[in-house]
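Thread: "does anyone have the structure for this chain?"

Original post by V.I.:
We have the sequence but no experimental structure in hand. Need at least a predicted one for the grant figures.
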Amino acid sequence: MSEKNTSLRTRLMLRFSLLLLLLMGSFAWLFYSLSRQNLQHKVLAELRETALEAEGRLLGKETAVRDGVIVLHFPLHTEAALIREGQIVASTPGYRPGICRPLESNGQEFLLQGGERLNACYWERFERPFPGAVVLQRLKIPNETVEMMEIFAAVLIPLTLILLWMAWRLIGRIFEPIHLLTDSIRQVRVDNFSRTIPAPDRDDEIQALTDAYNAMILRLREGVETLERFNSDLAHELRTPLTVMKGEIELALRRDRRPEECRDVLERLARETSFIERMSEGLLLLSRYSPENVGESFETLRLDRLLEGTLEKLRPLAEERSIELHATIESPLEYRGNPTLLAALFGNLVENAIKYSPDETVIDILLERDDRKIRFRVRDRGPGIPKEKLAYLTQRFYRVDEARSRRILGFGLGLSIAERAVSLHRGKMEIRSTEGEGTTVEVLL
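Reply from O.Q.:
Generated one for you, tokens below.
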């Protein structure tokens, strides 16, 4: 089975199994090596002690050899030999010369393996009273290392299987939230963003993934609801100018009209077309930039010049109604931002103030640097806005007074565009209004 066709749980289990087998194998090898060394040191230490004692007795005054047989008492399965000038001059009855050749070897001790039983050999060389050596053999030593490894394997194999089974169950428990997440993603549709996943009690990566998914679902739900509300508002806003345009065209086609009448119809159609065009431009501006991509469009610009250019364009609109634009602009005033969004911010706030201000009034405009922030303020002396409606002003297509707003050219996107521009520049916008006194919009960038 290829790795692409196996589940993540299976791949993790295979890797864990391999790692576990490597660890168990390494532990078994280390245990075997240490046990073997311990057994070897233990046996040879006993032989060394016995050989030293036997050497003293064999070379002393005590008679320990009779007719070539060593008559000393040795531990069980221990044999001995006395070598003189390369020849065995005395030995115990069970001594086996073929096991070790002490006079032909440079070493002093060694351990010979013999399957389940071991044979050990140790010798002590001497030069007086004659050149020779005392050799001791330990025969048929039980191989405790092999026995312990058999017991170890009998315990290790079931333990490994238990650990693998527990790992399989544990990985399954860990993947339960991921399976829930997968099922929820499969059920997500445009008309169904209601299902979230209960977050696990533990604070770990799975909980972070679950929280991120739930947050994404909530954002998608809000986005879809906003889109549906936007589509409904847009359809409602477009219905009026399209109905007017359709009615004008049908009325113009019913009978022949004089050139001046045709001109009036075309002018009304042009106004409605301009209305739709401006609405489309505003909607495009709202959707073109996002917090993720707006930074790419930032550049260093002069806000004072940008605002002065905006005021020059809007001044004729104010002069038609004898409205004075009283501007206090700090110069020079550099700022790094998006020129299109900032121009829309200045234009929409000043134009709104002009539209809703009474004739022959003054609009105060301020642009200055306040500590590390840029302050932009527009204050009109219009009718004001009720407090209960201030929170809805930045919603798309919202109008405080529908009947009054129809007499004023606009489509309810100005403050939405202004708020979006401020948000994308990580600023704040505050609207303060008192009925009968006017409205103040203040922006901090």
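V.I.: this helps a lot. Residues 402-411 have pLDDT under 50 and may be disordered.
O.Q.: and The longest strand covers residues 132-142.
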